[in-house]
Amino acid sequence: MSIAPVLRLTALGLLIALSGCSLLSPPPSTTTYDFGPLAAAPSQPPAKLPKLRITQTDGPVWMDGRGIYYRLQYTQAQRLQAYATQRWIDSPQHLFDDRLREAVAGRGPLTWTGDASVPALKVELLAFEQVFDSATSSRGVVRARATVYQKGMIGQKTFVAEQPAPSADGAGGVKALSASADAVIAAILDWAATLPLDTSQPPNQVRQ
Asked: ∠ CA(20), CA(25), CA(27), 5° rounding?
């Protein structure tokens, strides 16, 4: 038997073996996260809110998916990228929206979205990312613009919260972003409580 057929058979066997290995190798597992349970109520109760309705939280197109995004500020500040095997269980807008509604309901009556007889709170997420200042240090950054309106704008303000990540990975980023989201929501509601939201009177046109 010549050497050439033997080499061909050996190569074919090697390819089959490699193909079998790739077929048998399981794909990388994906870990999903939400914001976790609400933090314990503060000892000092926050200011009560009058009746509010919440419109859907919006954000840029890249937030429509479930990716957990990070930015290497120290080396690639213009590049926003997502973890390969770690995801939110839903889009950041939906998770934020659910958390916002829970927080509003905890501080006053929450009515349905179409109830135009009460002021509406609209939130737009502008940033929602884990920012690495070095290879071992990162923070969760959440920036949001809140608008309260009823037959015209009552108030508008931008809020930013940053919380340090306990670890330099996706799990640490999730904890930091969840804490930052809760901090932004608390600040928005504290601000909304200072606005003229008396639903028995026509709203004043005040912009902040």
From this structure: 135
Only one residue has tokens 């939110």, namely 88
pLDDT of residue 47: 80
Is 59 within the bounds of a domain? yes
Residue by residue, DSSP assigns 60-123 as -GGGGS-EEEEEETTTEEEEEEEEEEEEESS-HHHHHHHHHHHHHHTTS-EE-TT-TTS-EEEE
Find all residues with CB under 8 Å of 118, minimum gap 6, and list them: 50, 51, 52, 53, 111, 150, 199
pLDDT of residue 89: 97
Establish if 66 belongs to a structural domain: yes
Distance from C-alpha of 197 to C-alpha of 167, rounded to nearest angstrom: 41
Return the CATH number at 84: 3.40.50.10610
Residue 202 lies in a domain: no
Confidence bin at 197 (pLDDT 50/70/90): confident
pTM of this structure: 0.81
Total number of domains constituting the chain: 1
Dist CA 85 CA 174 (whole Å): 13
Domain that holds residue 105: 31-192
Q: How confident is the model at residue 39 (pLDDT cuts 50, 70, 90)?
A: confident
What's the one-letter identity of residue 101? R
Q: Are 118 and 111 spatial neighbours (Cβ–Cβ below 8 Å)?
A: yes
Scan for tokens 């937030």, then name that residue. Answer: 63
8-state DSSP, 58: B
